Amino acid sequence: MRILIAAAGSRGDVAPYTGLGVELKQAGHDVAVATTDAFAPLVRNAGLEFRNLPAHPRAHGDTTDRRDLMRTAAAFVTELGQGFADAVAEGTDLLLLSTTTAPLGWHVSEATGIPGIGAYLQPAAPTGDFPPVVMGTRSLGRLGNRTAGRFALRMADRVYERAVADLRRRLDLPALTAPAMRRRQERAGWPVLHGFSTALVPRPSDWRSGLDVVGTWWPSLDPAARLPVELEDFLRAGPRPVLIGFGSMAGGEGERLSGIAVRALRRAGLRGILQSGSAGLAADGDDVLTIGDVPHELLFPRLAAVVHHAGAGTTAAALRAGVPAVAVPVTADQPFWATRLAALGAAPAPIPFTSLTAERLADALGHVTRQQTYARAAATVAQRMATEDGAGQALKVVQLLTG
C-alpha cells in the first residue's frame, strides 16, 4: 500500500510521524511524508520519501493575544492549502492526516477518492472529561467542557475557511464550508488515531467509537546515532545536569531567557545544558554547555530534570526517560500538557512563560531535583509508557481499516 502522511507546523508537529512512517515501511508499505521544506532532512534521514508542502510557519506575535494567533494560523494554512493537492501524487492509496492537515485532506479525499485516517498528536474531539486543549486548563464541568470543545472546533474552522474555499475551487468541487465538512466526517464516523500515551491522557469516556488512543509515536532514531563528544564530556564531568530549552518557541528572546536560565541554575546550585532552539539560548562556563538539536532519547535519561515549553513531544520524551520536569508553557496546547505533567506528580505547577523569572525557575528546579517524589512519579509513568507500542498499534488499525 502506498501511504502518504501529511503533517505541518513546528518540528514537534512533524518528527513523531517519522517513527510512525518507519513502522509502516517496515511492514512493507511505501511511505511518503508531505511536510514543509524545513523538515526534508528529518524525513529523508528516516529513509522515507519527502514531498513538499509549500508553506512557511510564521513566528508567533503576541502569544497572549488569541486573535493574533488565529491570524497567524490562518495565514499559514491558507498558504498550506494552495499546494496541498499537489503533494498527493497519483497512486496514493491512503492518507494519514495530522490535526493541522486533516481539514484540508478531507477535501482532497473527496476529490480523489483516496481514503483518509486521522493521525493526531492531541485530543481534539469535544469531551466532558477535560476542557479543549487550546482553551486553558480549568475544567468547566462536563457540560461546560463539551460546549467549550465544540466552540474550539468552530474557531478552528474559521482558521481554515479561506484555505478550504480556495482548495475546493482548485479541485473543481462545489462550495462547502469547513463546519459542514467537519459535520459530514463526524456523521460518517471518520477514524482518528491519537499518538499519545494513555498514561498522560486516558481515552475520554464519552468519545464515539473510531477515536482511538494508541500510544506515543516516537521520532525515528538512527541506531548509529551518538551524542556529540563535547556533550558526552560535559555529562561525565560532574553531577547530572538540567536541560533548559524551548524548542520552536520564544524566537528572539534568547538573550533574556539565557540570562534567566544561567541565574536560575547557579541559584539552585545545578549544572546546566542550554538547548539553543528557535530562541537562540546560549551561555558559556564550566557549569553550563550550549547545544543544538540532539535526540531526546539519548540525552534525557542522563539528566536530573528538563525545563521545557511543554510541547506534546518533549513532554512525552521526558516522561519516557523517567525524568522530572519544570514546564514553562508558551501557547496553544502547551498549558494542557504542562497541567497533565503536574497532575501526574512529575512536575510542579507550571510557570507561565510570561511569568518566568530566575527566582521562580530556581525555586522550581530546587523542588524537582531535591524532592524525590517528582522523580518517582516520572519513573512510574515511564514504566507504563514502556508497555505501549504506539506505532505498532497504529499499524494494526491501519491494516484493519484498509483490509
TrEMBL record:
One BP term from GO: carbohydrate metabolic process
InterPro entries found in the cross-reference section: EryCIII-like_C, Glycosyltransferase_28, GlycoTrans_28_N, UDP_glucos_trans
Assigned keywords, A-Z: Transferase
MF (Gene Ontology): hexosyltransferase activity; UDP-glycosyltransferase activity
Presence of the UniProt keyword Hydrolase in the record: no
Erythromycin biosynthesis protein CIII-like C-terminal domain: residues covered: 285-388
A Pfam family per the record: Glyco_transf_28
Domain Glycosyltransferase family 28 N-terminal: 3-59
Name the record gives this protein: Glycosyltransferase family 1 protein
